[in-house]
Design brief:
The complex is a heterotrimer of chains A (161), B (688) and C (310). Chain A has helices spanning 23-30, 113-122, 124-150; strands at 33-38, 43-45, 53-59, 62-68, 72-79, 84-85, 99-102, 106-112. By secondary structure, chain A is of the alpha+beta class. In chain A, helix 2 crosses helix 3. In chain B, strand 6 and strand 7 (122-126) form a beta hairpin. In chain B, helix 1 (27-36) packs across helix 6 (218-227) and helix 9 crosses helix 11. Chain B has 688 residues and is α/β, with parallel strands linked by helices. The relative contact order of chain B is 0.10. Helices cover 33% and strands 9% of the residues of chain C. Chain C has helices spanning 32-38, 41-50, 80-91, 100-105, 117-124, 157-169, 180-186, 192-196, 212-215, 232-241, 250-256, 265-273, 302-305; strands at residues 21-26, 52-56, 68-74, 93-99, 148-150. Chain C has a 5-stranded parallel β-sheet, sandwiched between helices. In chain C, helix 11 (250-256) packs antiparallel against helix 12 (265-273). Chain C is globular. Classes of the chains: A alpha+beta (161), B alpha/beta (688), C alpha/beta (310).
């Protein structure tokens, strides 16, 4: 799974976001990366609990869901291969913000939260390279949430015709 | 083609037939001759304390002895004093407030009759004008310049306003050169007067004791000859020449037109627009008295049972909220400042882009008849550059300018050759296929060759009795007809989605610019659809997949609100099963949905910036399209290969009603498909 | 949007049995809007064929308390009884249409909002104890949700027909929100402000009237109320300072806006800012007591004691 063979604009087969880390930094991070596998329907993260890890999806699909008492569980966004899951592991108060459920057979590489935070505190190069990727991911989800708020495809209050 | 050597006075030009002299007492004979020719005669009259162009019976109806003084927002009619005979002249009033527009382009005409008979059969009749032969006496140079602009806008193609064309064909124009200008006149600045250089059948100039007259057309010549007039004397012709030059000199130059187009468009964010908006009432008086404003709206007048209706076309105004209103209830020009900017920039800048001329003829009516006295000459100077300081002590010789407007070539020769159809074709509804809770696809059968020659991205206007006539994009072109996929969001579209097979409806089209599939040949194709935006792209998908070897790759990206709002699901699933790369996402979903969730731009989240070889076709709500276009730009997709289709309010679909204007374009006629490069900053500019 | 037709535009003419039930009722008003409906002589028969008028005081002695498919309500809420009655009427109506300046903006009686209510009562009624009235005359939308409004003093009858037609066919009624000016110019009337220096509210007033007043050579007095985005300050400023009217006193400009729709927020703001409110205190009623009928009922008292019908 390398960038070079991935066609342009093909997000689901592109390499992971961590490919953008400098090679030495990536090597140091990978010393404590652990592969997890999930069956469809299994819960990966639960909202409100301490964040166990930061992960990058290697394969599959993860739905981030919010529990709405009147509507059950609503999927807010799905995380696709190559994307980060669990940014709350490095952002205070280190608490999971949404349920994460595998909707397909999913594999991810997880970096334990406390180990990662220790590394970030000691390895400035890692922090300087990794945290912007995390922020970028958070920022994209924020922007996407704004677009969802607009509900541009939804029924309009007034139609000319 | 600009004529470089205009004569200083046509009165002394040997090329014309020798002018004759019409004594005041014989004006009545002229009018009698016009009546005898079967024409109604329209001329200036005193009405409601102002000079208006009205139907006249006798020469005595003309405003003998009246004069108008005009300041911004205050016009007064007064009796001239003096006993040398000139005080009783008929045409020294300045331009009539109404101009001649009400006679060539009336404020209200019946445009279309739609009726459903008891057996369900639909009949559609387009009104073609009354064909009442008319003679206008007393038109001014500014009126004629405006008439030539209307000739270009309304009858110069690609679509022709049939009502206007019919009135125009029967029109005989007797113009008068102004020997008097009000303070609001500025035709000299716009190069349209006060001398009359073309557009009239007969040109008059009022001199002592009568009018010198010269024929400019064969019809004018016959009319003058029938009166058996004496030739005008050299003294009379000299007087005509010098008085029009004096009128020009009195006006001077109050609008600097050099570079005005660019100066104005460079100042779209000038703070002055807001200050105008504090004064401007957005009442629309300026657009109504403007002789070139041509925007119209349709209202439907129906019988109580809704089986028969007439679409009435009335003057509309870009100063109203409803003018640019679209789905969501929002207007593209919500603020008065937006509307004023639209009006002024159209007149002096984007009119050039659209029609190859200025949209202002310098008649000053909008200045005089603005109820709060807003003077466009001042506003132009404040927004687009300073006025020169006139040097009163050194009058410069004024050359009487010719009518520059008439000499300009149309902006696009190609546009003028194609014709857009204005008549309706009755088609039969063969099948109604529900797509979602509020959306249905109508399969229509027709043998009309034009409709069958439609191309993906084009649209049709759909008429049924009693309802407004919506523009609907074509979602598939079949050998035996068309498919229209309609979201029943408003009354007319809801009605259409509830029709039953066998019903008839009337279509006008195909209209608009199709998707430029040729731009994608040999390139990677990305088709990106949001919500109902898949409908106009469906025909393109058909075309692309008919011969996919023409493209290096084809990818389809689909966004919808929820899984239940996805369109053409079996079709898209079948394409995916056949190996077409289709990626779909929905904005929100319950736990049963296992596909992607997230806005459509998320589909490109991890894409690499290697889009140089991509041609993208985007359709959806404008906010979605601009977000996707931004993301594609990040991915190096060239803006000239990024195509999208805009939604604006459209009432005619052929560039005649003015509603869908965006900068120098009409979305209906020049689009609706545009490239991001073509739109430039206009795509995102608020209030345009 | 509400519709009174189940199968719009395909139902053809309704039979006598299934005609929509239409009511016309009045609250505090002059009945002028009802008379405008009766003035639609050419259309009345067609209307009566397609709609069953179950309540229309000016036209029929028939009475109904509902339910109504379409109910037209004339008049403002000026008394406590009316405030109760409108809630009942709303509940009894599928489509509630308020008609006229009183119902849509409070009407001329809403001018008392700017004055001392008790002083008014004593000025108008010889025996105010018999008259229950609210301190403010308010538009109906202040009390209940309304579906459509037809403006004007009185309404334009053709707008009413347009609304009924739209409701039966299922389309959107075409009730323009443009300035009177546009209609005035379409009619070919020279602007009375510019040509005569007549103060005119046309530029800030919603059209629909057919520009009647400018057509008679006088200024619009705003009976249709403020239009969308009315730039009232722009107009008021010009009338007070501009050359067109020769400079009106600010209070006179303020009073221009204090007419039949003077209680609408946009117009009222101008009146208050320019201090064009009615003069007060008013003289007491005893100074010009109305003539009494033989039986002793004050002539002027009829309107206010005429409570809602049931």
């Amino acid at each position: 799974m390398t960038n070079e063979t991935a066609p342009a604009m093909a997000p689901h087969v592109a390499g992971t976001v961590l490919d953008r880390l400098p090679a030495p930094v990536r090597a140091r991070l990978n010393t404590f990366g652990v592969m997890h596998a999930y069956e469809p329907g299994s819960e990966i993260l639960r909202a409100g609990t301490p964040a166990p890890f930061l992960a990058v999806i290697e394969r599959g699909r993860v739905a981030l869901r919010l529990r709405v008492p009147e509507r059950g569980r609503v999927t807010i966004v799905t995380i696709e291969p190559g994307e980060l899951l669990g940014w709350s592991a490095v952002v205070p108060p280190y608490r999971v913000t949404a349920d994460a459920v595998a909707t397909e057979p999913t594999r991810l590489i997880a970096y334990d939260a406390s180990t990662l935070r220790t590394h970030l505190g000691e390895d400035c190069e890692l922090a300087a390279a990794l945290l912007p990727l995390v922020l970028e991911s958070v920022s994209e989800r924020l922007g996407a949430s704004w677009d969802q708020l607009l509900d541009v495809f939804g029924p309009q209050p007034w139609e000319p015709w | 083609m600009i004529t470089s050597a205009l004569p200083t006075s046509a009165w002394l030009d040997r090329a014309h037939a020798a002018p004759s002299f019409l004594p005041v007492a014989r004006l009545e004979d002229l009018i009698t001759a016009l009546h005898a020719d079967g024409r109604r005669v329209v001329g200036p009259t005193v009405e409601d304390g102002a000079i208006r162009m009205s139907e006249i019976d006798h020469a005595a109806d003309l405003p003998f002895g009246w004069r108008v003084t005009a300041a911004p927002g205050a016009v007064r009619l007064e009796r001239r004093s003096g006993d040398d005979g000139d005080a009783a002249r008929a045409f020294d009033t300045g331009p009539a407030w109404s101009g001649i527009k009400p006679w060539t382009f009336p404020s209200r005409v019946d445009a279309l009759h739609v009726a459903r008979a008891a057996d369900g059969a639909l009949s559609v009749a387009v009104d073609t004008g009354p064909g009442v032969p008319t003679a206008i006496i007393g038109a001014r140079a500014c009126d004629l310049a405006a008439l030539s602009i209307h000739d270009r806008v309304l009858a110069g193609g690609p679509a022709v306003d049939v009502d206007y064309a019919a009135r125009r064909a029967d029109l005989l124009v007797i113009a008068v050169e102004c020997a008097y200008a009000t303070s609001t006149c500025f035709c000299t600045s716009m190069g349209t007067g006060p001398a009359v250089t073309s557009g009239a059948d007969i040109v008059l100039a009022e001199v002592h004791g009568g009018l010198v007259a010269r024929a400019e057309t064969a019809a004018g010549g016959r009319l003058l000859a029938s009166l058996g007039l004496e030739p005008a004397t050299t003294g009379q012709l000299d007087a005509a020449t010098s008085q029009v030059a004096a009128t020009a000199a009195a006006m001077g130059t109050t609008v600097q037109t050099d570079g005005l187009h660019d100066r104005l468009l460079a100042n779209l964010d000038h703070p002055r627009w807001q200050s105008i908006a504090e004064r401007c009432l957005a009442c629309g008086n300026c657009t109504a008295v403007c002789p070139t404003c041509f925007c119209t709206g349709l209202t439907v007048e129906s019988d109580l049972d809704g089986q028969e209706s007439t679409s009435v076309r009335t003057w509309d105004s870009c100063f109203t909220a409803g003018f640019a209103q679209v789905a969501g209830g929002g207007s593209f020009r919500p603020q008065h400042a937006d509307r004023y900017r639209q009006w002024l920039t159209h007149k002096f800048a984007t009119w050039w882009d659209q029609f190859g001329s200025s949209g202002c003829v310098g008649c000053g009516r909008c200045v005089a008849w603005c109820p709060v006295g807003i003077d466009i000459r001042e506003e132009l100077a404040a927004i687009a550059g300073e006025l020169p300081i006139p040097d009163a002590s050194a009058p410069t010789p004024v050359e009487v300018p010719g009518t520059r407007i008439l000499a300009m070539a149309p902006p696009s020769a190609a546009a003028a050759t194609a014709t857009l159809r204005t008549e309706y074709v009755t088609v039969t509804l063969a099948e109604v296929r529900p797509e979602t809770a509020d959306t249905a696809t109508l399969r229509l059968t027709t043998t009309d060759p034009d409709l069958l020659a439609a191309r993906p991205g084009q649209f049709v206007m759909v008429a049924v009795p009693a309802f407004a006539i919506p523009p609907i994009s074509i979602s598939r072109i079949r050998p035996d007809g068309l498919e229209l996929t309609i979201r029943g969001a408003g009354p007319a579209t809801s009605f259409l989605t509830r029709l039953s097979p066998g019903a008839t409806l009337a279509l006008r089209g195909p209209l608009g610019r199709p998707w430029p599939i040729e731009d994608a040949i040999g390139r990677d194709v990305a088709i990106i659809a949001g919500g109902i935006g898949l409908a106009p792209l469906r025909g393109l998908i058909d075309d692309v997949l008919a011969d996919p070897a023409r493209f290096t790759s084809v990818r389809i990206y689909l966004g919808a609100r929820t899984p239940n709002d996805r369109l053409f699901v079996p079709e898209m699933d079948a394409l995916a099963a056949s190996g077409i790369d289709i990626r779909a996402t929905v904005d929100r979903a319950g736990p049963a949905w296992l596909g992607r969730v997230g806005v459509i731009t998320e589909l490109f989240r991890n894409a690499r910036p290697t889009g140089e070889r991509v041609t993208a076709f985007i359709c959806g709500p404008e906010r979605m399209m601009t977000a996707v276009a931004d993301r594609l730009a990040d991915l190096a997709v060239p803006p000239e290969h990024t195509w999208l289709t805009l939604e604006r309010r459209m009432e005619c679909g052929v560039g005649l009603c003015g509603h869908c204007q965006l900068g120098g374009r009409f979305v209906c006629k020049d689009g609706p498909v545009f490239s991001v490069a073509e739109l430039g900053p206009d795509l995102r500019r608020e209030g345009l | 949007m509400s519709s009174v037709a189940s199968t719009p535009a395909r139902s053809g003419r309704p039979t006598v049995a299934n005609r929509p039930r239409v009511g016309v009722v009045k609250l505090a008003s002059c009945d002028g809007c009802q008379l405008t409906i009766l003035d639609l002589e050419d259309e009345l028969l067609a209307l009566a064929e397609r709609f069953e008028f179950v309540e229309f005081a000016e036209a029929t002695s028939r009475r109904s308390s509902g339910p109504f498919d379409v109910l037209f309500v004339e008049g403002s809420i000026s008394t406590p009884e009316q405030a109760t009655e409108i809630v009942r009427l709303r509940a009894a109506s599928r489509v509630l249409v308020v008609i006229g300046a009183c119902a849509t903006a409070g009407g001329i009686q809403a001018l008392r909002t700017a004055a001392e209510h008790e002083a008014f009562r004593h000025a108008v009624y010889p025996a105010p104890a018999f008259v229950e009235s609210l301190a403010e005359a308010k538009p109906i939308a202040s009390y209940v949700t309304v579906d459509y409004e037809l403006r004007g003093c009185p309404i334009d009858g053709h707008q009413l027909i347009e609304l009924l037609t739209a409701l039966t066919t299922g389309r959107r009624p075409q009730l323009p929100d443009q300035a009177v000016c546009l209609e005035c110019k379409r009619r070919g009337i020279a602007c009375v402000v510019v040509a005569k220096g007549e103060p005119c509210l046309g530029p800030v007033t919603q059209t629909g009237c057919g520009a009647i007043c400018p057509g008679m050579g006088r200024g619009c007095y705003g009976c249709f109320g403020p239009r969308e985005g009315a730039n009232v300050d722009g107009l008021a400023g010009w009338y007070a300072d501009g050359p067109a009217l020769g400079g009106l006193a600010p209070a006179d400009v303020g009073r221009l806006f204090a007419g039949f729709t003077g209680a609408s927020p946009a117009f009222r703001a101008v009146t208050e800012r320019l201090d064009g409110r009615p003069q007060q205190p008013l003289r007491p009623a005893t100074a010009h007591r109305p003539e009494l009928r033989p039986e002793g009922v004050p002539v002027w008292g009829k309107e206010a004691v005429d409570g809602p019908r049931h």
